[in-house]
Amino acid sequence: MTSSVVSAADRRRTLAVAEDALLNAGALQNAIFNSANFSSIATDANGVIQIFNVGAERMLGYTAAEVVNKITPADISDPQEVIARLRLVLRHWYSRLRAASKTSTSSLTSARIGAASPRWCR
């Protein structure tokens, strides 16, 4: 019969190892978040900026103190740039949808030609 009793010393060692791993993971996460190589901006449900890292500060020219809990991304966006980007995205998805609909239509057409097709499809 094996004992399932864990000594207090074993529990403390296990807890210490887990705490150390958590601290290391937190330090790494913090280093990544505070990197100036990428921007990280997050908003709350109302669209108000809650996170604005060093990279965002560097890329956009605002400090976190100027924007966090004060403004939305729309307040620091160029409307013409947003419209231009929207047009690009819409063109991209429109062309993908057109291509997909052509593929679907040709598949349906070739399926309808078969003898097993219902009479109204022929």
Description:
Strands 1-2 form a two-stranded antiparallel sheet. Strand 1 (41-43) and strand 2 (49-52) form a beta hairpin. Residues 110-115 and 117-122 have low confidence and may be disordered. It is flat and about 65 Å long. It has a domain at 78-122. The chain is mainly alpha-helical and 122 residues long. It has helices at residues 8-33, 54-60, 64-67, 79-113; strands at residues 41-43, 49-52. 59% of the residues lie in helices and 6% in strands.
Question: Topology of this structure?
Answer:
Elements: H1 8-33, E1 41-43, E2 49-52, H2 54-60, H3 64-67, H4 79-113
Antiparallel strand pairs: 1-2
Give the tally of β-strands. Answer: 2
Secondary-structure element string: HEEHHH
State the end-to-end distance.
76 Å
Gyration radius from CA atoms, angstroms? 28 Å
Low-confidence stretches: 110-115, 117-122
Strand order of the largest sheet: 1-2
- Morphology: flat
Averaged pLDDT: 82
Counting H and I runs of at least 4 residues, what is the number of helices?
A: 4
Q: What does the largest sheet look like?
A: 2 strands, antiparallel
Strand percent estimate:
5-15%
Short structural description:
The chain has 122 residues and is mainly alpha-helical.
Question: Which key terms come to mind for this protein?
Answer:
122 residues; mainly alpha; 6% strand; flat; disordered C terminus
